[in-house]
Amino acid sequence: MNVYTTDKIRNVVILGHGGCGKTTLTEAICYLAKITTRMGKTSDGNTISDYDKEEQKRQFSIGTSVIPVEWEGYKINLLDTPGYFDFVGEVEEAVSAAAGAIIVVNGKAGIEVGTEKAWDLCEKYKLPRIFFVTNMDDDNASFRQVVEALQEKYGKKIAPFHFPIREDGKFVGYVNVVSEQANKWASDGTVNEIEMPDYSKPYLEQFRDVLLEAVAETSEEFMDRYFSGEAFSEAEIRAALRTNVIDGSTVPVTMGSSVLCQGMYTLLDDIIKYFQGPDTRKFAGINVKTNEIFEADYDFSKPKSAVIFKTIVDPFIGKYSLIKVASGVIKTDDVLYNYDKDVEEKIGKIYVLRGNKPIEVPELHAGDIGALAKVSKARTGDTLSTKANTIQYARTEISKPYTYKRYKPKNKADIDKISGALQKMMHEDLTIRNVNDAENRQTLLYGMGDQHLDIIASKLANIYKVEIELSEPKVAYRETIKKSSDVQGRYKKQSGGHGQFGDVKMRFEPSGDNEKAFIFEECVVGGAVPKNYFPAVEKGLEASVQSGPLAAYPVVGVKATLYDGSYHPVDSSEMAFKMATIQAFKEGFLKASPVLLEPIASLKVTVPDKYTGDVMGDLNKRRGRVLGMDPVAGGKQTISAEIPMTGLFGYCTDLRSMTGGRGDYEYEFVRYEQCPSDVQEKEVAARASKLVDLTAED
């Protein structure tokens, strides 16, 4: 592959709803650009983008693929992203490296949730975008309905650049609104200009008015000419539209058929014409040595620096760090400094990846996307620069995973292998978390949804040859008391020779501080219990609160007071007083109205207005308490609530079902509070066996 300068590079992310045709579009572009001699199909598992075994098995994209395409002297780096919401982390990484977006819309399905989310991401990152309506060869596809729906949702900025020509219900050509030309596809795929069909003329007039209005708004001169009825030249229209597309005030709508490879030529041309090169975009970091802002701005003349925006860890092709060059020119055998890991590394060979195929290149100019194979310490989000000009760029904000399940290895001997495999997968996917919950003796796997967790388990089995079982996690309940008690604990053991004797009288009451397990005080008078045995009493309490007598959960909020007791000058020992305390604690705890405390989370759910009633009704069913609602941009509401952690199991799936995938949520633990009596009874009954042998495996 040739080396391209910054002005000849276009970085474009392909977004859209799952199954709308993103990968098929990418495949059609590759075919047109003569990268392939035959178009692959998702159903056949032979596309360039979906090279992962899991993608081929499930027939949808799981990870982002980079597909560099050479076209008319330009290099277009296509970033094909997954459409399903469980893989949003991959999309966020791709968007961070792009300077423009193609939002794919299925002409038959129209606007879907993934379309809306793609738009929101473009708004967040201020990306110029083009809508591409695909599947126009389908008889049920309607370009007009898609355009009307887009205009209704996003306003006047939606501007069709083309619209279809149909003959006998078949998609045979298109009208270019800018040039006012009608074109028809020949059997060999070329385009021939034809006379404008009469039925197309009203649409041309309607769509052209939208374009001309957008052109007029670019300057006062154009506005005057527009109102005076003066015509604009095609060059003037294109120049004005490019300005509008770049600043987001105009969003083109184009269309085609990926299966028939129709509309790809114009799409590639539009990418070059209407999207900006990296050299026109701002990008800044911090010079760590001077603490000054370093304006990289994808300038090839400035000191070299790059950001690792994605990591690929594959047992077959190895590990690749995907970089976007922020400044300078990175060359083979450069030595780069990773500030985040405080290590210098010789990068060796430089590649561009086309799917999973590495293509060696001698250098990468600012703004370009490539891959490094030998930066062992590097992780996604790290900055590479020279040690003389140490730069650090901000990390991309990646969605936090809230869905989690408990997992166990099917074979206990695989524990270390599973841990190692998950570490590799977490390097690749930042939305995976592996958490050791020592308190409940369980390991937890976090992801973006149930499907995400299932795919992780499947990858472990198929790629790393280790199997896990996923199940509902245990809840971290606590035990405490509501009343006071006064008890005696006596430990006496005589088995010939030296005996054991310890005797304590203690009061137990709520401490009012659930942050601490217990508070210990003593007010022994007259040496009934010698001072040297006080530490043994405290050790007995420490042992007791680890596993409470109610349901074997940790104890909190107890005040224990030693006020009397007795001892034997020969038989008493620390061990005896420790055991006496354990006995006293158990009896005193159960006499003091013991209760279970459950963890409570602070929950925020953001949904469109029309779903608020359904969401609040569902929260009530989960024993949640709605605290309030706040309006947010885009006709949405954020519902604030408090909910038991048990109420969050399966919430991701249910929320998506209720809102058609439009709802988002986040939560954090806030406190413990007493759980209802029916929940307590059920949990105490379920945990009865744990009281017998606390060392038994859960």
Strand and helix layout:
Layout: E1 9-16, H1 22-32, H2 53-58, E2 65-71, E3 74-80, H3 88-97, E4 100-106, H4 113-125, E5 129-134, H5 143-154, E6 158-160, E7 162-167, E8 170-176, E9 181-185, E10 191-194, H6 201-216, H7 220-227, H8 234-247, E11 251-255, H9 264-274, E12 284-287, E13 292-295, E14 305-314, E15 318-327, E16 329-331, E17 335-338, E18 343-346, E19 350-354, E20 357-361, E21 363-365, E22 369-372, E23 383-385, E24 391-392, E25 403-409, H10 415-428, E26 433-437, E27 442-447, H11 450-462, E28 468-471, E29 478-481, E30 485-493, E31 500-510, E32 518-522, H12 534-545, E33 558-566, H13 574-591, E34 594-608, H14 612-621, E35 625-632, E36 636-644, H15 651-659, E37 664-674, H16 677-686
Parallel strand pairs: 1-3, 1-4, 4-5, 5-11, 6-11, 32-33
Antiparallel strand pairs: 2-3, 7-8, 8-9, 9-10, 12-13, 12-24, 14-15, 14-23, 15-22, 16-21, 17-18, 17-23, 19-20, 19-22, 25-27, 25-28, 26-27, 29-34, 30-31, 31-33, 34-36, 34-37, 35-36
